[in-house]
Design a protein that fits this description.
Layout (H helix, E strand, L loop, with lengths): L1 H10 L1 E3 L3 E3 L10 H15 L6 E5 L3 H12 L3 E4 L11 E8 L4 E8 L8 E9 L3 H13 L2 E11 L4 H7 L4 E11 L4 E4 L2
Parallel strand pairs: 3-4, 3-7, 7-8, 8-9
Antiparallel strand pairs: 1-2, 5-6, 9-10
Helix pairs in contact: 2-3
Subcellular location: Cytoplasm
Pathway: Purine metabolism; XMP biosynthesis via salvage pathway; XMP from xanthine: step 1/1
Catalytic activity: XMP + diphosphate = xanthine + 5-phospho-alpha-D-ribose 1-diphosphate
Length: 192
């Protein structure tokens, strides 16, 4: 998606440790007009898949998931990173490691929001090592729902996450795949 790539080049910042900061438009301050275009692109790529639910993980994926869900006319479910008092009943849960935060989380979805009749599209802002996305795949599998694919805004193609998830047989559609980043020059190279 050329619009996204240009925005990354213009406003993204490469930091040491394979970190691409896009917090001024993607995952802290959100450019809603860009999110709308991202949602349209995911709709185009997954049209005809019969999506009934969008699943993401809190917090950065929620905005993108909402504008994607609007295109499909379906609800968004987000996996919470901690048990709270307002989650009642039985839950699906699995553990994920956050590359960004360097922590391990239990992610939780109430069983009343995922069922065997659902056709689920996963949406997330980044795919790096694949732990979060792998955890979301596990939740869908545990629910008995059908996983139709994963829509990723930015994939770090030089890390193992894409290969891991595709190796599970999951269709992954990434709007921008970064092949290389240089923190010294700030340069970002994309896969075609």
């Amino acid at each position: 998606m050329e619009l996204l790539k240009q925005r990354i080049l213009k406003d993204g910042h490469v930091k040491a440790g394979n970190v691409l900061k896009v917090d001024n438009f993607l995952n802290h301050q959100m450019d809603v007009a860009l999110f709308a275009e991202i949602g349209k692109e995911f709709k185009r790529r997954f049209a005809g898949c019969g999506v009934t639910k969008i699943l993401t993980i809190e917090a950065s994926g929620i905005g993108i998931a909402c504008l994607t869900a609007e295109q499909f006319g379906v609800p968004v479910v987000f996996a919470k990173k901690s048990q709270s008092r307002n989650i009642d009943g039985e839950v699906f849960t699995t553990r994920v490691e956050s590359f960004t935060h360097g922590r391990v989380y239990d992610i939780i979805v109430s069983k009343k929001f995922l069922s065997p009749g659902d056709r689920v599209l996963l949406i997330d802002d980044f795919l790096a090592k694949g732990s979060a996305l792998n955890g979301l795949c596990q939740l869908v599998e545990d629910s008995g729902a059908t996983l139709v694919g994963a829509g990723i805004v930015i994939e770090k193609g030089f890390q193992e996450g894409g290969e891991l998830i595709r190796g599970r047989g999951v269709r992954v559609e990434s709007l921008a795949i970064v092949d290389a980043m240089d923190p010294e020059t700030g340069s970002v190279t994309f896969r075609d």
